[in-house]
Amino acid sequence: MSRINLAVLVVLGLLLVTAKQSTQMSLKNPTSYIETSNCKVAFLRLGLVLTSDNNEKALRDSGLFEPDSENPHADIAGRRFHVGTLNKTPIMYVKTGTHSVNVATAVQTLLLKFHISGIIFFGSSGSLDKDILMPGDVAVPKAVAFTGVWEWKKFRSESKGKLVFGDFNYPENGENLLGTAEHQKIQLFTTGEEPKEVFWLPISSSWYEAATEELKDLELKKCHSGTCLPGTPKVVFGSKASTSDFYVKNKAYGDFLVEKFNASTADSASASVALTSLSNEKIFVVFQGVSNVAGGKSSNSGIKYIASYNAFLAATKFINSIPTPRLACE
Ligand SMILES: *[C@@H]1O[C@H](CO)[C@@H](O)[C@H](O)[C@H]1NC(C)=O
């Protein structure tokens, strides 16, 4: 082989190696690739977190999400992290699935692997009080708590929990072998501090306040493919939200949550988003589309979709009001 041919082969080989490396890098971490390759396009994205197929369908149907043409997504731990813009604002979104472990895992991954300035969560919840929230309404809570963390006391234990099962015997209340349960606080871990025991997890006040300003005149969707809400849907600010790994459709337990905690909604995701964001010292906000009322009749698929869509509308209006934070160029 001549010397020139050999040189050509070496150059070709080098090119192949380089091409392979850059493809691998871009697939692994699209945002850091975009953000470190050129200072002019360095910015932080907003993290949009949603739980269900129905939530994602609302986002896709809106036509407002535009996937990034070069790096539309990255797959980590079975989750797909989508890169793009929502009505021109740079975002990443992830569908987490429900229940605290799934939600927390996906939010933590999003925060660890990508440059995210804050978390906007939207999902569905059940109303615990139909006088405050009806299906199709959007709740913007001020605080959320895990209300499924219990110490379950012994039958006839000296110290009684506030949830007394005998109070719910039917048709008459009395004693019940299930005894009582006491709701517990949860540990909040943050960098450089001892873990704290907390019950209410406050929504970041600056974003909560921005949301109350931005969404006060938001017009929500009333009908979807032939199904309409009975009234005009509204955005309700300042409620308290309860989260547990069981979804509350039971009216008696819903009434207990209202009475003991003044909670207006129940879901199985919001407090996970809150705890993970607080642990990582990231700003966050929660939008819940009400899909049913605890103890009420089950909503049809049209109403459930409207609930998702209205929560999505609230999240989008909020996102579009946030200026895109840029990384400083050195
Ligand atoms: C209970 O919640 C409702 C609705 O969010 C609120 O208007 C009311 O002030 C709360 N009551 C107390 C005692 O916190």
From TrEMBL:
It comes from Salix udensis. It comes from the Eukaryota. Residues 47-297 form the Nucleoside phosphorylase domain. One of its GO terms (molecular function) is catalytic activity. The keyword Signal applies. Residues 1-19 form the signal peptide. This is Nucleoside phosphorylase domain-containing protein. GO terms for biological process: nucleoside metabolic process.
